[in-house]
Amino acid sequence: MLDSLEKTLPRDSYLSEAHFEREYAAIFDAGWVCVGRGEGLTQAGDYLAIRLNTQSLLVVKTETGALKAFYNVCRHRGTELVPLKDPGPITGQFQHSIICPYHAWSYHLDGRLRGTPHLAVHTDGVSLHALTLAQWGGFIFIRLDPGNDDPLRSTLGHGVERLQRYPLQDLQVGAAITYEVAANWKVIVENYNECYHCGPVHPELCELVPAFRRGGSDLEWDEGVPHREGTNTFTASGTTLRNPFPGLSEIEKTHHKGELFYPNLMLSLSMDHVAAFYLWPQGPGMTRIQCDFLFHPDAMAKPDFDGSDAIDFWDLVNQQDWQICESVQRGMQNRVFQHGYYAPMEDYSLDIRHYVRSKLGEE
Ligand code: FES
Ligand SMILES: [Fe+2]
Predict the structure, then answer these.
(1) How far apart are the CA of 240 and the centre of ligand 2, in A?
(2) Closest CA to 23 of 355, 363, 317
(3) pLDDT digits (tens, 9 = 90+) for 29-68
(4) What are the structural domains of the chain?
């Protein structure tokens, strides 16, 4: 009987605008959120601008080489310093200072107000509104809530140890694909957390990793999931000319690992590349997902470097995932749907109920 199965969160949790706002405030506006990679910001003035739901943010490389984060809003009349019609992220470079496009107030790269043309006012002590920023493994995380002082490292949890031999800090983005997925962010996380769907949804992937066909009950994610004999990475052939990352264990050279860092960073790790997914919810039924493909700089420096074997394969798998997630989102809108069920093998996805409910103060 279905009674023996655990129930998912109720329909409102995935469909209601009011629930989305409450949940977004408690999770994304309150804690650490990943906004992407930092290695592209190398020169003073390099920036990344992104809008997370309604909040527009800037990450800037300062003169001292540090990364700082600010709200992307001028202190004069509220103009975006970097216009973001699209949520982004976009990258660019400020020349020496940040100049507002409206009336040309200027700011030092560390956020201090520098000049207010034709206005004799004291600028001392006036800065852009700052945000908390921290980095791990080359990823940039920001936190909007100044009252929350949870260190990033403790929020990330044990996944950091499980990935300790992967040289994440050194990797570089070889390509990125952005997807607009018409599904609630939790549908996407729940899908990522289980391989019960891999047999029906990902036939090509199951050719490479036959264990995925059986679903998730006996998949050993801590150690990694083994590839079919003779294959060792996520490409159409299951092989590649790229070398394994330096420092991996023998097992990691032939196994696949996955990690979810709540709420919005998902990592899939092969021996030669990493697919990094950032989830940026736009509403109860819409999520922007950027997938960065990370490679080792030694591989990228080779004249014949070509990451398309991994990128094309991932794009196929990603489209399969997003299409089924969008179908879930549409299906849940039927009035008969009140909640779903987790299969026993999906232990990991049970976590999202606890995660969301504890953030909402419901546990
Ligand atoms: S709004 Fe920025 S200078 Fe006026
Ligand atoms: Fe999938």
Answers:
(1) 22
(2) 355
(3) 999 999 999 999 999 999 999 999 999 999 999 999 999 9
(4) 40-137 (2.102.10.10), 157-359 (3.90.380.10)
